[in-house]
């Protein structure tokens, strides 16, 4: 099963983030459903959930929980995101979860471009090694960053394809399979 480790911002942080106005209305962009907004620490791909949960317990249990906030906006090819500050505070957690520190970019995905639109679009440049957050009117972060928060836990999440048509279509379905408490 496809697994990843992530942090889910609390409701007050997500409430301060108004996603829809920031998502381009043209070009095949689809907003991430509100219940799916998260910060990925590590994508594990196809993996055994029991083995991965045991590894995460050993690596993350009691690890210091960083104080975070959402700030600025940027793009990767096919992805519109909001940044996480301080980004280096997440680096240790991401590395413990199994991410390559050299490739880790702290962000929360706001929208994805459809594969059809992505193929038709001009190639986008590779992101800068340290993306610079830029305020965006209507994003909900105003001229500055959002509220501070400290995650209580890291989640091991299963990702399944969502329905193609009808209610809830247009994105994966996430199910939490394991929780790892972080230290305070």
UniProtKB/TrEMBL annotation:
<dbReference type="InterPro" id="IPR004175">
    <property type="entry name" value="RNA_CPDase"/>
</dbReference>
<feature type="active site" description="Proton donor">
    <location>
        <position position="38"/>
    </location>
</feature>
<dbReference type="InterPro" id="IPR009097">
    <property type="entry name" value="Cyclic_Pdiesterase"/>
</dbReference>
<keyword id="KW-0378">Hydrolase</keyword>
<keyword id="KW-0436">Ligase</keyword>
<feature type="active site" description="Proton acceptor">
    <location>
        <position position="107"/>
    </location>
</feature>
<comment type="function">
    <text>Hydrolyzes RNA 2',3'-cyclic phosphodiester to an RNA 2'-phosphomonoester.</text>
</comment>
<feature type="short sequence motif" description="HXTX 1">
    <location>
        <begin position="38"/>
        <end position="41"/>
    </location>
</feature>
<dbReference type="Pfam" id="PF13563">
    <property type="entry name" value="2_5_RNA_ligase2"/>
</dbReference>
<dbReference type="GO" id="GO:0016874">
    <property type="term" value="F:ligase activity"/>
</dbReference>
<dbReference type="GO" id="GO:0004113">
    <property type="term" value="F:2',3'-cyclic-nucleotide 3'-phosphodiesterase activity"/>
</dbReference>
<feature type="region of interest" description="Disordered">
    <location>
        <begin position="115"/>
        <end position="134"/>
    </location>
</feature>
<feature type="short sequence motif" description="HXTX 2">
    <location>
        <begin position="107"/>
        <end position="110"/>
    </location>
</feature>
<comment type="similarity">
    <text>Belongs to the 2H phosphoesterase superfamily. ThpR family.</text>
</comment>
<protein>
    <recommendedName>
        <fullName>RNA 2',3'-cyclic phosphodiesterase</fullName>
        <ecNumber>3.1.4.58</ecNumber>
    </recommendedName>
</protein>
<dbReference type="GO" id="GO:0008664">
    <property type="term" value="F:RNA 2',3'-cyclic 3'-phosphodiesterase activity"/>
</dbReference>
């Amino acid at each position: 099963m496809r697994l990843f480790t992530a942090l889910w911002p609390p409701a007050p942080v997500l409430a301060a983030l108004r996603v829809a106005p920031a998502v381009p209305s043209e070009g095949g962009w689809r907003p991430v459903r509100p219940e799916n907004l998260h910060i990925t620490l590590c994508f594990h791909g196809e993996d055994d959930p029991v083995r991965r949960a045991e590894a995460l317990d050993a690596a993350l249990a009691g690890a210091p929980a960083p104080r975070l906030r959402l700030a600025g906006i940027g793009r990767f090819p096919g992805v519109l995101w909001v940044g996480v500050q301080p980004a280096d505070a997440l680096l240790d957690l991401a590395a413990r979860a199994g991410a390559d520190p050299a490739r880790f970019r702290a962000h929360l995905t706001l929208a994805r471009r459809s594969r059809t639109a992505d193929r038709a679009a001009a190639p986008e440049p590779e992101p800068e090694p340290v993306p610079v957050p830029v305020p965006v009117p209507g994003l909900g972060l105003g001229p500055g960053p959002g509220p501070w928060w400290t995650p209580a836990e890291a989640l091991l999440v299963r990702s399944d394809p969502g329905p193609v048509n009808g209610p809830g279509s247009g994105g994966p379905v996430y199910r939490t399979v394991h929780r790892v408490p972080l230290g305070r």
